[in-house]
Amino acid sequence: MLVFVAAAYPIVLPWVFLAFFAVFIPLRVFDFWARGEPPGYNRLFLLDFCYLVNFAVAAYFVAYHYQTRWDPKDLVRVDGERFSKRKFLKALLKKVVLMDRVGMVLYALADGPVAMALVAWANAWAFHSQEHIISVLIHLLPGLAMFSWMHLPRVDWASLKSCSSLLKEAETALTFSHCATLSSAPIERPHTQEDIAMWIIFVPMCVYAVWQAAYLLVVEVLLAGYVSRHEGALDTSFLCLRRRERRKGDASVWNRLVFTGSRLRQVALFTCVQTAFTLASLLVFVPSYLYWWVALAFQCVKFVIPLHFGAEYTYVRMVNQRVQTRQADREKRR
């Protein structure tokens, strides 16, 4: 369904993302907070960077939608004097420009480190598992929605509503996109080196640095005592990756370079690797921002990679686990 919508009506992808966010993010919060063995075992995953970016992208779309519906009568100065029409347009223009800069930052984060995490964390699009599907979409959809928002005509809710009747008949469905984008203004995205350096590299890295500092403060300082006293009661991204890599033994580069020595050393190196990965992802993202065809190719890659990992998980790992389980059962019977 998502592939069909992305191919046939890509202009509605921001609204698809908002629908996904409204339904499945609360479901994921409930699953991580109330379920698991023990209950709440995965709740610290909700502090991960991908959830922050999802919340920020959803807030951006909602805020952008409502800012275009402001009325001059709603803009009142502190002293009660109303804005003139010229001052209103100037203030609105400043807000639109600021929102476009915020869009650049969110597009860089959503289609940079969050999308690249599909590869780094080997997210498997296993269609039999709700947990795997949501995990993939959390990393895939924000960048896909921002790609549509930044490279295609922007469609507001009123246009979608007025043209939705065209989708009822196959003969008129092909004209839906044309109808919905009739009132869309052309998009002029900043392309100067200064804007790219500031809003694609510097500001996203500052956002990431603030999140990383807050995350370490909460998880590694404030909750460190609780986690150490209740081992196995809470899981984190660091612990999950370390557990997964240690199963690979000496063949894992992570084990040889990062997950050795004291916990402080491991956390410090893990943080450095994450920061370097984020910076590299933002640098790789720059061509996607500048050229729509590069961005389109990257969206296709984002679909293919989770499918590859999902096929490997379903037809290799699950089969091997099943074989190992049967062998273990036979040995017990003997």
Report what the structure shows.
- The chain is mainly α.
- It has one domain.
- It is 73% helix and 0% strand.
- The protein is built from 14 helices and no strands.
- The protein has helices at 2-8, 13-34, 49-67, 85-120, 130-151, 157-163, 170-173, 176-180, 193-222, 224-229, 237-246, 253-257, 263-290, 292-333.
- Helix 3 packs across helix 5 and helix 4 crosses helix 13 (263-290).
- It is globular.
- The N and C termini lie far apart (49 Å).
- Mean pLDDT is 82; it is low at 75-80.
What is the element layout, followed by pairings?
Blueprint: H1 2-8, H2 13-34, H3 49-67, H4 85-120, H5 130-151, H6 157-163, H7 170-173, H8 176-180, H9 193-222, H10 224-229, H11 237-246, H12 253-257, H13 263-290, H14 292-333
Helix pairs in contact: 2-3, 2-5, 3-4, 3-5, 4-5, 4-9, 4-13, 5-14, 9-13, 13-14
Please work out how many helical segments DSSP would assign.
14
Rounded mean pLDDT score: 82
Percentage of residues assigned to helices: over 70%
Radius of gyration, CA atoms, in whole angstroms = 23 Å
- Overall geometric form: globular
Report the structural category: mainly alpha
Q: Summarize the helix and strand pattern as letters.
A: HHHHHHHHHHHHHH
Total strands: 0
Beta-strand percentage range? under 5%
The number of domains: 1
Largest sheet, described in full? none
**Cα separation of the termini:** 49 Å
Question: Unreliable stretches, pLDDT < 50, 5 or more residues?
Answer: 75-80
